[in-house]
Amino acid sequence: MSASVDDATADPALESQVVEQIRTGREAILRELNKTIVGQSEIIEQLLISLLAGGHCLITGAPGLAKTLLVRSVAQVFHLKFARIQFTPDLMPADITGTEILEESADGRRQMKFVRGPIFANVILADEINRTPPKTQAALLEAMQEHQVTAAGERYALEEPFFVLATQNPIEMEGTYPLPEAQLDRFMFNVLIDYLPHADELEVVLQTTQTRPEPIRPLFSGDDVLRFHDVVRRVPIAREVADYAVRLVAGSRPGRAGAPDFVNEWVSWGAGLRAAQTLVIGGKARALLRGESHVGFDDIQALAHPTLRHRILLGYKADAEGITTEQLIGRLIESVPHTLR
Known about the structure:
The chain has 341 residues and is an alpha/beta fold. The protein folds into two domains: 15-234, P-loop containing nucleotide triphosphate hydrolases (Rossmann fold, 3-Layer(aba) Sandwich), CATH 3.40.50.300; 236-335, Orthogonal Bundle (Helicase, Ruva Protein, domain 3). 47% of the residues lie in helices and 16% in strands. It has helices at 2-9, 16-33, 41-53, 67-77, 93-97, 134-146, 181-184, 198-210, 222-233, 239-250, 261-266, 273-289, 297-302, 304-308, 316-320, 325-335; strands at residues 57-61, 82-86, 98-104, 110-116, 123-127, 148-151, 154-157, 163-168, 189-193, 267-269, 313-314. Strands 2-5-8-1-9 form a five-stranded parallel sheet. A hairpin with a 2-residue loop joins strand 6 (148-151) and strand 7 (154-157). The longest helix has 18 residues, at 16-33. It is globular, with a radius of gyration of 21 Å. The termini are far apart.
């Protein structure tokens, strides 16, 4: 797999043989994840897309839906170092980034030594990020953006690849610190995890109460993931498809020329430039995972909901009429044509 990725990096056209090998790799990943995860195929695909594109994910779901197990399983498949951080109201920035301690050497000399925090891993599960104050949230988000932490004036680079999945509990908001919209924009996707269908839930209950799951076999390495990042960027996209992504995002902005009437009525603030970039780079990763040699309109549409749901701020009229962000994005997809008329 690694040699094939290197070949693809040198070939902007992504030869069909390489695309087929990447698609086969996707199937192998799903086989390994199915040892511990039942169903959730769309969620798994979105996590893989963000991982291969080098982005971060915000996961919204009720407790007990196997969010931690899913993230840990993905880390095992890619043979990445995993760390889980439970965010609480008393968590301080140094608790996740690390701190300096006074250490005495064998010869009696004392010196300051930086002790790395749990953020120095490849895959970080930031559990219930809205449970901690903004100061600690900002420390994590700064590390996500800069891929480094600063302590006592010294900069420490984080291990690559660096992938953050932050979870939020949507059913218990008392005593929480919601992320501001500007910080939410740092996440590539907002992934919604819902309850499983009856058949899948029954399968989970039977599996977890009869036998222990098989261990997940590592298929790739961190170096493979870094090479995948380069491959994703080389996936071709037609100018018309990229234009559609830009127009779809622009259509969410009220008061702008060409914005649909329902957007002007229901939306207070639309998605920014980063949303269009996410649709394009995410579309490239999705096409590659599905064995396609280029990005299609369907790739952009498939990623519209996880890309836009945390970047659109609804107004009071939408709230009064019972309009949800999911409904608005659905109407937006219907109203924005693939090509200019």
